[in-house]
Amino acid sequence: MPVLRPLLAFLLFLLAFMTTAVAQSALPSNDEIRKILVDRIDRDRQSVGIVVGIIEPGARRIISYGALAKDDRRSVDADTVFEIGSITKVFTSLILADMVQRGEVALTDPIAKYLPREVRVPERNGRQITLEDLSTYTAGLPRLPNNLRPADPANPYADYSVDQLYQFLSNYTLPRDIGSQFEYSNLGGGLLGHVLARRAGMDYEALVHSRILVPLKMSDTTIRLAPAMRARLAVAYDGSLNPAENWDLPTLAGAGALRSTVNDMLAFLAANLGYADSPLNPAMAAMLKERRPAGLALGDARMEVGLAWMITTRKDAQIVWHNGGTGGYRSIIAFDSRRRVGVVVLSNAGTPAGVDDIAMHLLDPAVPLIQPPKQHTQIPVDPKIPGRRT
Q1: Number of domains present in the structure of the chain
Q2: Phi-psi category of 217—alpha, beta or left, where left has phi over 0 and alpha has psi -120 to 50?
Q3: I want to staple 283 with a disulfide (CB 3.0 to 4.6 A). Which of 6, 45, 98, 278 is the partner?
Q4: How high is the pLDDT of residue 377?
Q5: Does residue 376 form part of some domain?
Q6: Which whole number is the average pLDDT over 8-25?
Q7: In angstroms, rounded to a whole number, what is the distance separating the alpha carbons of residues 310 and 280?
Q8: What's the pTM value of the predicted model, to 2 decimals?
Q9: Residue 42 sits in which domain range?
């Protein structure tokens, strides 16, 4: 069953980052980046269109290559719309942090406080699941609910209902103590968005719009696409570059429903790096202060989880990141909070190579670019050749 982009595939790049020293030089040139994109699309056949956005002291850059679709040769650019998948979880947790700043909720609030009384939220050893547990992927919930059985596997979350979500919670037994272990969970991210929307008295999309998009002037980030944005949507392709369906997440929207552009994501990066003042600055800072172990340590380096953000830290660098993926898109947002540089990469293909390595390589050239498996071409063999078995 398709799932939102897993984090485990990223660990090879993290290990490379954790064992090398970050170069304190400028990020690669536009020409160097463009060559990476050309190779990824033309040589490796791992996407149809990729857009890279970079923010660094005093400058923003956009480098793109490829097209909106195989049969639509319009070039992708900073205003091309992509599904950003699990990067949505960062927006969900930013809403949480903002609600805490406003005194509307507390991180330690049990989620049962904001759900209907008839929903029996699982507990363990007298401990209840809190808002912070969901945000840090430590609630003890699985990646997906076991009653997710999509009518259309190509759009797997589209028919998952609120009633099904409540039924799952009411019947699930936690396998371990709450807060004891990191386990990435699309269910948890979606549930957090649902709980916060109930607390705010509006649907998730309206909540994101009012609390984040309006303050940051992000006019091209949304769930439901107006005709003008739909005309700029990059067509989705699966891992074999066949057309894929766009994904809908009506109940678990907080896990991965947002669509956006590189221009809008650079505005989001600018605020997180302190280049733009907004009422969200305290909440953004708070997202990096609340941390729990994420199960990976090597020498003086460690990986932790903040409120949704993954944080890889060592003596000379701290990389904050989250990636995402749906059936036909791959995405990553990452920044070095000490050097105050950041990268966002969006692609319209759900291929194995993805774009995680591109972002990390741009932040640290010592992190290698992956080499996708070579395409094997079947060569017909003449049955008359001596020695051929039949």
Answers
A1: 1
A2: left
A3: 98
A4: 47
A5: no
A6: 53
A7: 19
A8: 0.92
A9: 8-363
Average of pLDDT values for 367-374? Answer: 80
| Residue 52 backbone dihedrals phi, psi, to 5 degrees | -115, 135
Average pLDDT of the segment spanning 61-71: 98
**Mean pLDDT value of segment 344-371:** 93
Q: At residue 297, what is the residue type? A: A
Residue 8 has a pLDDT of 43
- Tokens 């904050």, located at residue: 320
- From CA 311, how far away is CA 318, in angstroms rounded? 7
| Angstrom distances, CA of residue 66 to CA of 47, 69, 239 | 8, 8, 17
- Identify whether 96 is part of a domain: yes
Assess if residue 368 is contained within a domain.
Answer: no
- The residue assigned the tokens 């099904």 is 164
CA pseudo-torsion sign 120, 124, 126, 132? negative
10, 12, 13, 18: CA torsion to nearest 10: 120
The whole-number pLDDT of residue 373 equals 65
Is the backbone of residue 205 left (phi > 0), alpha (psi -120 to 50) or beta? alpha
List, in order, residues 6 or more apart from 92 with CB less than 8 Å away. Answer: 135, 189, 192, 193, 196, 208, 254, 255, 308
Pairwise CA distance, residues 299 & 18, whole Å: 8
CA distance 226 to 219: 12
- Domain presence at residue 382: no
| Chain segment 213-237, per-residue pLDDT in tens | 999 999 999 999 999 999 999 999 9
* 28-53 residue pLDDT tens: 999 999 999 999 999 999 999 999 99
Q: What is the CATH number of the domain that holds 19?
A: 3.40.710.10
CB 81 within 8 A of CB 259: yes
Could you give the percent of the chain with pLDDT greater than 90?
Answer: 81
